[in-house]
């Protein structure tokens, strides 16, 4: 069952039950056993792994965050913009070395915004699908092997960024220009704590649909900005774009305006970048603008142009941009960033004073080593110290320096024994912690 005949709507899953309860913790009441068995059949449950004892595990990797006393809570607005299929490769400002330094990319607005924003020399997605991105970006939950949102554990008790900020009196809302039910976004938004969900059905203007996915990015971003002016303060608002999706079309009135490039998506990337320019221009004079942290990232990559991006490093490289008007959050920091770092980074930036569970890192905390991880099927990747470790069946099969070996051609597995040992331990600790917390439904600090 798909729940809709629309192109963008995924088959109904267990997490869709969240649409029909007032409290996300009550989803089990809505579900019935036969349906749950049917929807999770064929999806491999996680195996409990015990590579380390509890003390060693906590030393290597601990997703339990305890706040540091840094001052009073900042009531700043937070806006998270998730761009469909927007690989890092398309952004000229983040690829000044490509094509012998001649590459300009397809995002003139983002290039200009990056000049007054904070970003990172390595930034990675934790998955390859849109349904991987929602839990990663909004709740710091990666998808290892199976997308979390359709896994056996999709109805575990969680607290996403919206739930945490809701405790502080934030108004929280999520926008997506497709039909409600598209990709299961509305269900996960509710499970993770968003109070409000705005979709195609709530869009008040006629003539702005693309005929397949929903509302074109330019008018929907404008609508997002218009509604933002009315939000109670402080607020957390997120929007997920959709135009840079197959079949990669732009509105008729903009045909010929944006460079086409060697792959079809390039033209649409230019259009969405243009839509972003209009969005920021439309809200830049509003009183809330100067008190808002904007975070721009992508759900996953798509068509690749350069060989440098056609490997296990490049195929996960997405932008991660933090923009705070008038602040010193600027430059390109030499560290690894990933989607699951967004929630702990925002909470610690705001001086959030409660403990929480997040599988990512605080990008402002340099006390520990930065790293990222994801999977391609059953192959695990760990990115750390300028290297990527590939692991299959919990055994290392490849180690590459992605900075000096852009095409990942030189396997260092037999040459970097000390680094291999450190990265092997780190990745196994991540797997052990992730699997056990999902299996035991220990994804919040306090018991249900």
Description:
The protein has 448 residues and is an alpha/beta fold. It has two domains: 54-60 and 375-439, 2-Layer Sandwich (Arylsulfatase, C-terminal domain), CATH 3.30.1120; 73-365, Alkaline Phosphatase, subunit A, CATH 3.40.720.10. The protein is 25% helix and 17% strand. The chain contains eleven helices and 14 strands. A six-stranded mixed sheet has the order 5-4-6-2-7-8, with helices on both faces. Strand 12 (379-384) and strand 13 (387-392) form a beta hairpin. Helix 8 (217-228) runs parallel beside helix 9. It is globular. The chain starts with 26 loop residues before the first helix and ends in a 9-residue tail after the last helix.
CATH superfamily of the largest domain: Alkaline Phosphatase, subunit A
**C-alpha end-to-end distance:** 31 Å
Number of domains: 2
Order of secondary-structure elements: HHHEEHEHHEHEHEHEEEHEEEEEH
Concise overview:
The protein is an alpha/beta fold and 448 residues long.
SSE inventory with pairings:
Layout: H1 27-30, H2 33-40, H3 54-60, E1 64-65, E2 77-83, H4 108-114, E3 118-124, H5 130-139, H6 161-166, E4 171-176, H7 185-191, E5 196-198, H8 217-228, E6 235-240, H9 265-283, E7 292-298, E8 320-323, E9 331-338, H10 342-349, E10 356-357, E11 371-376, E12 379-384, E13 387-392, E14 395-401, H11 417-439
Parallel strand pairs: 2-6, 2-7, 3-9, 4-5, 4-6
Antiparallel strand pairs: 1-10, 7-8, 11-12, 12-13, 13-14
Helix pairs in contact: 8-9
């Amino acid at each position: 069952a798909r729940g809709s005949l629309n192109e963008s709507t995924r088959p109904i899953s267990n997490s869709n039950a969240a649409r029909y309860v007032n409290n996300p913790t009550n989803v089990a009441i809505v579900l019935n056993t036969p349906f749950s068995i049917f929807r999770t059949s064929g999806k491999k449950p996680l195996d409990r792994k015990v590579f380390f004892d509890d003390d060693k595990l906590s030393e290597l990797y601990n997703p339990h965050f305890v706040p540091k006393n840094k001052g009073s809570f900042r009531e700043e607005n937070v806006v998270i913009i998730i761009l469909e299929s927007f690989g890092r490769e398309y952004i000229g400002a983040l690829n000044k070395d490509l094509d012998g330094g001649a590459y300009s990319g397809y995002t003139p607005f983002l290039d200009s915004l990056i000049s007054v924003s904070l970003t990172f020399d390595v930034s990675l997605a934790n998955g390859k699908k849109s349904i991987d991105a929602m839990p990663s970006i909004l709740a710091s939950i990666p998808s290892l092997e199976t997308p979390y949102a359709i896994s056996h554990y999709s109805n575990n008790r969680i607290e996403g960024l919206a739930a945490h900020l809701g405790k502080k009196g934030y108004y929280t809302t999520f926008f997506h220009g497709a039909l409600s039910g598209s990709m299961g976004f509305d269900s996960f938004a509710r499970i993770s704590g968003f109070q409000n969900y705005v979709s195609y059905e709530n869009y008040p203007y006629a003539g702005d649909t693309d005929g397949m996915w929903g509302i074109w990015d330019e008018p929907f971003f404008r609508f997002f900005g218009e509604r933002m002016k009315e939000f109670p303060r402080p607020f957390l608002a997120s929007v997920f774009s959709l135009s840079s999706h197959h079949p990669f079309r732009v509105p008729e009135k903009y045909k010929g305006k944006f460079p086409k490039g060697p792959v079809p998506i390039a033209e649409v990337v230019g259009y969405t970048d243009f839509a972003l320019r209009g969005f920021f221009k439309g809200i830049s004079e509003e009183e809330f603008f100067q008190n808002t942290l904007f975070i721009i990232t992508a759900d996953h990559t798509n068509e690749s142009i350069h060989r440098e991006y056609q490997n296990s490093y490049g195929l996960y490289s997405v932008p991660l941009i933090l923009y705070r008007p008038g602040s010193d959050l600027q430059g390109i920091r030499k560290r690894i960033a990933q989607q699951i770092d967004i929630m702990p980074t925002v909470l610690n930036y705001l001086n959030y004073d409660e403990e929480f569970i997040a599988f990512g890192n605080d990008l402002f905390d340099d006390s520990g080593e930065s790293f990222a991880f994801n999977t391609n099927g059953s192959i695990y990747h760990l990115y750390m110290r300028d290297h990527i470790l590939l692991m299959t069946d919990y055994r290392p099969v490849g180690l590459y320096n992605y900075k000096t070996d852009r095409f990942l051609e030189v396997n260092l597995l037999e040459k970097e024994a000390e680094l291999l040992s450190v990265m092997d331990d780190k990745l196994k600790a991540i797997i052990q912690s992730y699997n056990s917390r999902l299996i035991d439904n220990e994804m919040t600090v306090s018991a249900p």
